[in-house]
Amino acid sequence: VLVSRSLAGVPVSFIRGHSIPDSCHFTLDSISHIPLPGLLINCNHLSLITSSVSHFKGCTSTLTADDFAVFFTNKTRTISDQFSTAQTEDNFKTTNAHSLSSFSPLSETDVSKLILSSHPTTCPLDPIPTHLLQAISSSVIPSLTHIINSSLHSGTFPSAFKQARVSPLLKKPSLNPALLENYRPVSLLPFIAKTLERAVFNQLSMFLVQNNLLDRNQSGFKSGHSTETALLSVTEALRLARTASKSSVLILLDLSAAFDTVNHQILLSTLRKMGISGTALQWLNSYLSDRSFMVSWRGEVSKSQQLATGVPQGSVLGPLLFSIYMTSLGSVIQKHGFSYHCYADDTQLYFSFQPDDPTVVARISACLSDISSWMNDHHLQLNLTVTVLLVVPANPSFHH
């Protein structure tokens, strides 16, 4: 009872994200009705949790929806404006002899499966709640099938589906809510728009998998893969190196607003080289172009902001398109004898060496220099404040 009262008023999002030591844990669902099965809470640090949440409790924010809209737009534009517009080709090369020139039409049964198997999330832009749409799906499936097939056949993504509604989310409850930079945008898209995306996603991903065009070292947004596969791949390589009495270097790369700064022309060029052509490529071009968003904040909605770069946040296709965009980075890393593994826009590169190898520093410098050039060519910005280099010695000592 005491613990339940102590947790009263503590945001669930904060409890989820709090870093918890290994000692003195209990599960929250055993003492509370909050549906967080298996969540571990640390008794010793409960006062720290509640005090950090209440630190800014009295802070009154005067931020408006338009403030957020302008801030999110300018953040992306500032990064994109750093790069030359002359580079619009990717150096990705493929020997793929197959092509995908059009997307196949869907049957009413196919569309029904897409509708009913989707999570019933609802966006403010949806005309009716998604759970209601699913309940009456048998009545609307013929019309939805016609809309989807017309889009696929014409190579055009409907303009009505290109707007997103964005909600600002405080990155950490302990941050000052009066500062714009402490928020991240959470993008919501219409349910029917995402249903159309799923129709394309299924066909595009099948083509890429069948022709072995996806990066095998990318664990993000891939069936059967997760953060666990990325973590195990890297840690096992480092463990084996130490077993062989070798030292290792691990470099963790982080990108700033990576999804939002994807250059459309470079992405389309990469898709073309992978064998995407015809109305399929035309559809993807239409999907990416002329998008916009509005911010919802405390009951008000901002003016619409245009998006000139990026893959849509909160979308079905966005993560897959981003993985395609990053594909050629792997060859740059491997050219220097490094191994790597990715999860979305987080890239871990590593290599092992004899402890007395005098070439290590030069190899690291050369590899990072080429990565920096690749990032610049692809209009992506390394976040140097979060990027980390870690040395894993063959024989741990006090000096290490």
TrEMBL record:
**Protein name per UniProt:** Reverse transcriptase domain-containing protein
Xref: InterPro entries? DNA/RNA_pol_sf, RT_dom
Q: Which PANTHER family match?
A: REVERSE TRANSCRIPTASE DOMAIN-CONTAINING PROTEIN
| Residue ranges annotated for the Reverse transcriptase domain, each copy included | 150-400
Provide the taxonomic classification: Eukaryota, Metazoa, Chordata, Craniata, Vertebrata
Q: Which PROSITE patterns match?
A: RT_POL
Q: Which residues form a coiled coil?
A: none
Q: What top-level branch of life does the organism fall under? A: Eukaryota
